[in-house]
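User: Design a sequence. Structure:
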């Protein structure tokens, strides 16, 4: 007796694509989520921990209508990507702070790498770049000299804010509350006989750095070395990084010291102007940082 033919039904995949067909990766424009894109664009405006933006400022920066922006901000706050301040403005939440900072640090490093190379070749000494991550300052780039007697630095090293030229240069331009926090986090640890461990003395040192725009360390973190640092300011005029030139004391003279300081000042100006340029090519208002160096005045400041 012949068997009746049975019609077999194949279950379709939930994606609606035959399992035997190769999946095609959708193009971004076709499947792009505008809502998520807007939220991510808003996050990009918070470039460092000191950035606080209110609703009006975010509307101006993003171009998103206030009604839509309110819902996006509420969502980002609910999922702890943004944090609302008592005055109603917003800042980056701790949940995303360090990931965002490392991204900005890498972008900055790539932008100013050629300036580090120039300093390294100009003086044949070790040149370093440090970045401010929250309340800690860390080395993110180093170009060493090939001289037999040299000073070295280490990628990823945390710098003491009271005896490192780069850390002093960055800390000096922070708000008072943040200066206190940075000092508290690291502590005033003594490394040599010349390390500044008195709180009032280091506060006065920061004031001096703000007035002259550059910093110096002479055997404060290690015996036999001298280091000159200068801050870099981002598009919001926040001191987020610093560059230094390190060398043994045996190669330092008054003339060479002055040359390094003047070249660092020029480098900082060029780097800060590049970092302060907006994506559209417009520059923000420059901050008064005292980048004009008087030769006689500089030599007298030690």
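Assistant: Done.
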């Amino acid at each position: 007796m012949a068997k009746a033919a049975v019609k077999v039904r194949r279950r379709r995949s939930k994606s609606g694509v035959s399992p035997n067909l190769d999946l095609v990766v959708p193009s971004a424009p076709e499947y792009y989520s505008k809502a998520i894109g807007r939220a991510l664009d808003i996050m990009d405006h918070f470039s460092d921990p000191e950035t606080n933006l209110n609703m009006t400022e975010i509307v101006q920066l993003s171009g998103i209508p206030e009604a839509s922006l309110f819902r996006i901000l509420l969502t980002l706050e609910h999922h702890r990507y943004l944090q609302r301040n008592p005055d109603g403005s917003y800042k980056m939440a701790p949940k995303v702070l360090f990931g965002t900072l490392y991204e900005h640090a890498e972008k900055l490093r790539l932008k100013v790498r050629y300036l580090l190379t120039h300093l390294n070749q100009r003086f044949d000494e070790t040149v370093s770049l440090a970045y401010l991550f929250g309340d800690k300052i860390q080395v993110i780039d180093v170009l060493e000299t090939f001289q037999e007697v040299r000073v070295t630095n280490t990628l990823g090293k945390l710098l003491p804010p009271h005896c490192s030229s780069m850390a002093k240069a960055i800390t000096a331009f922070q708000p008072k509350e943040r200066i206190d926090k940075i000092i508290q986090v690291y502590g005033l640890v003594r490394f040599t006989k010349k390390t500044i461990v008195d709180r009032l003395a280091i506060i006065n040192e920061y004031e001096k750095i703000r007035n002259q725009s550059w910093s110096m360390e002479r055997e404060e973190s290690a015996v036999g070395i001298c280091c000159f640092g200068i801050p870099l300011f981002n598009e919001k005029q926040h001191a987020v990084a610093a560059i230094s030139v390190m060398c043994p004391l045996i190669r330092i003279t008054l003339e060479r010291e002055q040359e390094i300081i003047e070249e660092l000042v020029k480098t900082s100006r060029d780097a800060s102007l590049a970092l302060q340029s907006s994506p559209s090519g417009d520059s923000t208002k420059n901050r008064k940082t005292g980048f004009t160096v008087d030769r006689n005045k500089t030599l007298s400041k030690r």
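The mean pLDDT is 81. Residues 97-300 form a domain with the Beta-Lactamase fold (CATH 3.30.450.40).
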